[in-house]
Write a structure and sequence with these properties.
three-stranded antiparallel sheet, 12 strands
Length: 671
């Protein structure tokens, strides 16, 4: 039998309010992740038993085991003391002298609920809110999974807690299914994320979008933890330095033991969280993911994505893409996400200042020095991911890139390769190559935005062309001139009779067809030629990872921009005998088959460029059908996003954005 522990409540009692979930009139599982269940050491079929349903609806005994049918009554009710509805918040940017409030955790009483609502504060849309927390959620407890990692189990939609702030505490079915679906998709894409274990229909109707009640549901969620930036803000604003220090110790024990090796552990924790978030947001960006509500209470200390309320994915690429109905100022638009991540990390740093150094100025200086590395860590993760998506070799250690080790603010590595002239030359070549990849990637995204090209379709068409060339040993990969006679120009403008067959894009109809006219395709051809030259002049070996484009707020100097612009030309020019885009001799085996480097390039592109993502209109259609009782569209979409890097016969309609009715797509958080 599963038995949970109370690691968080034991370590941080003043951030945990004991509370029981309200009973469910008629619980039944609507969707679940068998893969996640097994990872947690749970037999998926056990979840259908009375004890399994007890776990998924929050009926937990005092010893951490789910209630049996004859077990103790787990009917609702909070512990004796609630949480204050307000608390003083310093007006200082760094509230090192904020007066601690009264510790708000309820007394630890005999027979109190095992489950707790977590307390936190946060900045919401840039404004401080001193009192947030789990208003409709409970932390069931934690367990050690099959890989030896400690994981939280958490329920959302269990009814109002003492932190509900006037909300009814319930959740409708659609948003809970949405969170499970998006979490499974992000996991399959290799992006760190919380995951839904199951969605349980409660049998309780919920009023949300109109006079007609919706079906109520609970989401059971697994996470590395539910520690947030807002957790530290609450401790700093209300409880004082000792509580912040305790929370730092708990976070280090739970997630970042390497931080303890630094002279100031709190500073080490900040560095670890900074790197994790830089890597995470880079992955969001290249996948086209828009979180939608990047408040500080929605940024985890573990580096996992959490809370998929108004999230969406970019179809036609646009840096200002914003879908959330509540983000009227577009604060959390796609292109703003890296900058917002750094802003949130600055709020974490402020909360940590009292335990970094007793001298406020010294603490600010030390924290600022850590955060100045965010740009370099982010750009390295992004460039690493862009290289994979483009099939370009960087020839650097992937693990060090993922960690950001040795990266300066411009994302270069310094002397990590060893001493001496050879190391200097290698480092210089790697820096030049990295700058070239960054410039090529950024120019690609600008091109996609200019011509309103679908981000996912573009990169997958490029990938499929390379896969076809690698498997057949032909010269028809993207970026290679060809005399194929396939007519791909179907325009009805003045260029109707233009023959694109001798162009690079003309050999790949799926790629050329994404661009609206011959002028746009000419721009594509020029970009493909740059890509081919860079591939041909790069070292073997491709770094792993997924990333995203630079925030539009990145104000690189003209000198830096010029260096990046010319870097790909320099990389190509350094090798006077580099082959032309159409010369295949040095990339073929003696029998004419593709060389191993070409095959590896195509295979790694295939692992970085998904065929299927949870397209906004497909998600919306699946959820609407599920709300009406038809789960087939949801299950079909869920199956596709769980295996996103291959084409699925019969699911081709899910590869594109779906039918556009001409209206802007808007997401709602469902709270």
């Amino acid at each position: 039998m599963i038995r949970l522990q109370r690691s968080f409540a034991a370590a941080m009692p003043d951030l945990a309010v004991p509370h029981r979930a309200a009973p469910c009139p008629d619980p039944r599982i609507i969707a679940r992740s068998d893969d996640l269940a097994r990872e947690l050491g749970i037999d998926p079929s056990w979840l259908d038993t009375p004890e399994g349903l007890a776990l998924l609806t929050g009926r937990i005994r005092a010893d951490g085991a789910p209630c049996s049918p004859a077990g103790e009554d787990a009917a609702g009710g909070a512990a004796a003391d609630g949480i204050p509805r307000s608390a003083p918040v310093s007006s200082r940017a760094t509230p090192v002298d904020a007066t601690p409030g009264t510790p708000s955790g309820a007394p630890r009483l005999s027979g109190e609920p095992f489950t707790v609502a977590q307390v936190y504060a946060g900045h919401q849309f840039g404004q401080p809110n001193p009192q947030l927390g789990d208003g409709r959620a409970l932390l069931l407890g934690d367990l050690v999974d099959a890989h030896g990692n400690r994981r939280d189990l958490h329920l959302k939609g269990i009814g109002p807690t003492p932190l509900a702030r006037g909300g009814d505490g319930w959740a409708p079915l659609g948003p809970m299914l949405r969170e499970l679906l998006i979490g499974e998709a992000m996991h399959a894409l290799g992006i760190p994320t919380t995951r839904g274990l199951a969605v349980v229909e409660t049998g309780r109707p919920v009023l949300r979008r109109g006079p007609v009640p919706e079906r109520g549901a609970i989401l059971a969620r697994a996470a590395a933890s539910h520690l947030r930036v807002g957790s530290f803000q609450y401790a700093a604003w209300h409880l004082g330095p000792d509580a912040v220090r305790d929370l730092v110790e708990h976070a280090i024990d739970r997630h970042w033991p390497e931080a303890r090796e630094e002279p100031v552990p709190a500073l080490g924790l900040l560095r670890c969280v900074m790197r994790a978030q830089a890597h995470l947001v880079a992955q969001w960006m290249l996948t086209g993911f828009v979180h939608g509500v990047m408040n500080t209470d929605n940024m985890t200390i573990s580096g996992e994505t959490i809370d998929y309320g108004p999230c969406a994915f970019v179809d036609r690429f646009a840096t200002d893409a914003c879908f959330s109905s509540i983000d009227v100022q577009r604060r959390y638009a796609y292109g703003n996400q890296p900058g917002i991540a750094l802003w949130n990390l600055s709020r974490l740093a402020e909360a940590l200042l009292p335990v970094i150094d007793a001298d406020a100025d010294a603490a600010v200086s030390a924290a600022t020095a850590v955060l100045e590395d965010f740009e370099g860590a982010y750009l390295r993760a992004w460039t690493d991911g862009m290289a994979r998506k483009l099939g370009i070799a960087l020839g650097e250690d992937a693990d060090s890139l993922r960690r950001g080790d040795g990266a300066d603010k411009h994302g270069t590595t310094g002397q990590g390769m060893g001493a001496g002239t050879n190391a200097d030359d290698a480092s210089s070549a790697a820096t030049t190559r990295r700058a070239a990849v960054r410039a090529l990637g950024e120019d690609c995204l600008r091109m996609l935005q200019r011509h309103r090209v679908d981000l996912t379709l573009f990169f997958r068409a490029l990938t499929d062309a390379e896969l076809a060339a690698a498997s057949m040993g032909t010269g028809t990969e993207a970026g290679t001139n060809t005399d194929a006679n396939t007519d791909t120009d179907t325009d009805t403008d003045t260029d109707t009779n233009t023959n694109t067959n001798t162009t690079m894009s003309g050999s790949v109809p799926a790629l050329a067809g994404l661009f609206p006219d011959s002028q746009a395709r000419a721009e594509l051809d020029a970009w493909l030629a740059r890509r081919r030259h860079l591939i041909d002049t790069s070292a073997n070996g491709i770094a792993s990872g997924i990333g995203g484009p630079r925030d539009e707020g990145d104000t690189r100097s003209a000198e830096d921009e010029g260096h990046a612009r010319s870097a790909d030309d320099e990389a190509a020019g350094d090798q006077g005998d580099a082959r032309s885009a159409g010369d295949e001799d040095d990339t073929r085996e003696p029998d004419g088959s593709p060389a191993p480097a070409r095959r590896r390039s195509a295979e790694l592109m295939a692992s970085a460029n998904p065929v299927v993502i949870p397209r906004n209109r497909h998600v919306d259609a699946a959820l609407r059908a599920a709300e009406l009782g038809d789960m087939a569209p949801f299950e079909r979409l869920l199956a596709a996003v769980r295996d996103p890097f291959v084409h699925h016969p019969g699911l081709e309609d899910l590869e594109g954005p779906g039918e556009d009715d001409g209206t802007a797509f808007i997401t709602y958080c469902g709270t």
